[in-house]
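User: For a reading group we're discussing how well predicted structures match intuition. Take DNA-binding LytR/AlgR family response regulator. Before you show the prediction, I'll give you the sequence so everyone sees exactly what went in.
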Amino acid sequence: MTILLIEDEPLIARQLLKLVQQLEPSATIEGPLTSVQAVIDYLNVHRPDLIIADIQLADGVSFDAFGQLNLNVPIIFTTAYDEYAIRAFKLNSIDYLLKPIDPDELQTALAKYHRWQPSGTDFADQFKTFLSQLNGQSATPHYKRRFMAHQLRQIVSVSQELVACFIRDELIYLYTMTGQRLVTDYKTLDELDELADPAHFFRATRQCLVHLDAVAGYRPHHTGKVQVLLHPPNDQFELMVSKEKAAQFRQWFEG
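Assistant: Thanks. Here is the predicted 3D structure of DNA-binding LytR/AlgR family response regulator, as structure tokens, for the group to look at:
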């Protein structure tokens, strides 16, 4: 049995690989693949028995890859979006798993695969139906609702409501509303800027992505810049929005 893992977040990829190795010790595990193009290149040559696939990848969504291929492989989807086409997932795939992935839920999904596998289910037809159901939704961006970070020796999930800001200081740090500073595995703030909902997050500077609920107000500066007042106050850094982005910030903050 060959299982292909598709996941572009290193923290989750390592966790998922470890879980699958524990639950399917005799399986050959390929990946994790991290991009749409890598998935297309792999599936043009190989046919795994099962795919465990994240939705949002570095260069698009995994549906983009599957839609280009005549795929007849069962898929377990993983997603951080608890409202992202859940009904369609349940109808047209083996299962879906919300991040952070629960070991018991993964075990249940794998057991479901083993029950269905002898039945010869035509997953290609199912997936075509699934993609057609998503056509009306594909133009709507889906943003992350939860972000993975390191806390001591654990990997934790932080909901967007609890994120005060992301700060780049060699590494990308996640600051919570309670003042905790957690390390993330994100490589750049540009990556996070694409994943975070712009209704809630604003790229205040090249080093900072701030959450709306963390902003208590702002103070105009004589240079035309805007000083962002954080709630609760954070003495570790002063947040200044450039003159060029000041109007955009005020519009975002004032709704």
